[in-house]
């Protein structure tokens, strides 16, 4: 009879099990040679993935800005352009199919206005911005350069801790732009900084390269300004948590500019009419007795004939 009982675990088996567990953890040294291949951590707990895409009808400048953000964020995913007739809540289903829990959606209107939706899928919150002063990396031609796929530092202005809606946007940007640690497509280097600063009730985005240990920086790009419009409780909709009272839509701004040009013409016409009304019919008061001593010459006679 063959003994089919359980085999007792020896000390050698326990040591082998411990070594197998220890091999899963990779310890990255503080100084890594550029020639040596870097060992990757197979397990990464932060599963943040950001979907970056746009609607149809965007300008070439917005398209290049979107491509720059995809290159700077290794945890991002791409998607073909969405039809403008579709509803925004469809984006939640697209993110679910792409296995993404964050989204940056560029919406173009009238081929000149660009809106950016930043959302936490699927429960929210989400925020809508008007994108202004767009400058891409190829357009700026700045001297900075960083490693593709490197994890950036996120720097926020102190004003983000002043009001509740700025604090909410800060947390949203941390989760969207922050590259997860040990991400398979990321590099174990930190050589550039994303800065978010508040000025004139707008969020100014800049990207700088860290040149040396003393903290000297060189701007890489892209750069753009986000004018907040509304913050919603849900993803791409829901109850309004914050509405910007200082926001002026581009249509209202262009209408005001046209009215100012029309006012110049109306003021000019009114000035001409007032000049004609103030102009006297008789410029000089003549004395009728001056004609008594008028001498008639041959020219006067010829004129009468």
Helix content bin: 25-40%
Figure out the total of helices: 7
Query: Biggest β-sheet: count, sense, barrel?
Result: 11 strands, mixed
CATH architectural arrangement of the domain at 50-254: 3-Layer(aba) Sandwich
* Total beta-strand segments: 11
Distance between the termini: 161 Å
Order of helices and strands: HEHEHEEEHEHEEEEEHH
Question: What is the general shape?
Answer: elongated
Residue ranges: pLDDT <50 for 5 or more in a row?
A: 1-6
CATH class of the domain at 50-254: Alpha Beta
- As a whole number of angstroms, the C-alpha radius of gyration is 35 Å
Mean pLDDT: 84
What class would the helix/strand composition place it in? alpha+beta
CATH homologous superfamily title of the domain at 50-254: Brix domain
CATH topology of the domain at 50-254: Rossmann fold
Please indicate the percent range of residues in DSSP E strands (runs of 2 or more). Answer: 25-35%
Topology readout:
Layout: H1 11-24, E1 50-54, H2 60-72, E2 76-78, H3 90-97, E3 102-109, E4 113-120, E5 126-135, H4 137-140, E6 153-156, H5 164-177, E7 192-199, E8 202-210, E9 217-219, E10 223-234, E11 237-243, H6 250-278, H7 298-304
Parallel strand pairs: 1-2, 1-3, 6-7
Antiparallel strand pairs: 3-4, 4-5, 5-10, 7-8, 8-9, 8-10, 10-11
